[in-house]
Amino acid sequence: MEDIFRAIEEIAIKIDNAIKTADLGYNDSENSSGESQLKLDVQSDIIIQEALSKISSVKSIVSEEKEDILTLNDGGEYIVCYDPLDGSSLVDVNLSVGSIFGIYKDTLDGNGLVASSYVVYGPRIELVVCKKGEKPLLYRYKANRFEKIGEITLKNRGKLNAPGGTQQNWSPIHKGFIDTLFQEGYRLRYSGGMVPDLHQILLKGGGLFSYPATSDKPNGKLRQLFEVLPFSLIYEMANGAAINDKGMRLLELSPTFIHDTSPCFFGSNDEIKSLKKAYGAR
Ligand code: AHG
What we know:
Layout: H1 2-21, E1 26-30, E2 36-38, H2 39-53, E3 58-63, E4 70-71, E5 78-86, E6 97-105, E7 113-121, E8 125-131, E9 137-142, E10 145-151, E11 160-163, H3 172-183, E12 187-188, H4 194-203, E13 207-211, H5 224-237, E14 241-243, E15 264-267, H6 269-279
Parallel strand pairs: 3-5, 11-12, 11-13
Antiparallel strand pairs: 1-2, 3-4, 5-6, 6-7, 7-8, 8-9, 9-10, 13-15, 14-15
Helix pairs in contact: 1-2
The chain binds 2,5-anhydro-1,6-di-O-phosphono-D-glucitol.
2,5-anhydro-1,6-di-O-phosphono-D-glucitol (AHG) binds next to loops.
């Protein structure tokens, strides 16, 4: 798997360069979730496909920007699912964005997820790598290499609250819970990019990120294979938790379709316990 992590480092540098130099216009196409594709989304997808094609252990890839699974090497053992440029609609206002990778073996579900990684393109490039059973590791790009900064561990309770989705479409239970967090002194931190928003909670010690079921999106917005499962592994390995609105660990999810979404909540343990209580989940 180390060759995949090295490829992600190369990909990060190339996508960062594309973000800084490429045309910010839209393509004529839409992705499989019916969203308009920025030229940058498509370019980032090509950069990743080209890099992973050279790695013999990668059997196939699944991209948020592609309709179907693409086989690269019949003899490979890993399936890499990725969101090439998450939050790409924030590039034109110069906010941080990211790439997310889930590395699966045998099955495309939480059980088959063996490692995750994400890159944050912000004032600096940061990379997080997490193997199942091990603490997530943070790297920062400096002097032409990714320097290891250290392990990421969440405290049991944090101070940040990142509530996603349109408030008008939240359920009364969700609205009540989010209001309670603010009454308890939590501070709003939400950019609209899940990578920087979840990264901030991880590095500042804790809090809650939520993207609930809403009246317009009853299954949530965020995709299981590219977004929800990779971050669930990272949050659990960092001593936090990741659940859906029934109180189920997100890592127990088995998508029926590669672009399936799920309501999702990521946070430190105390916030997730309070959330379960508010939602009446076990
Ligand atoms: P996109 O890649 O289309 O910009 O979507 C970003 C995703 C995710 O990164 C973020 O957490 C979420 O959508 C934000 O959605 P809301 O604006 O509905 O909160």
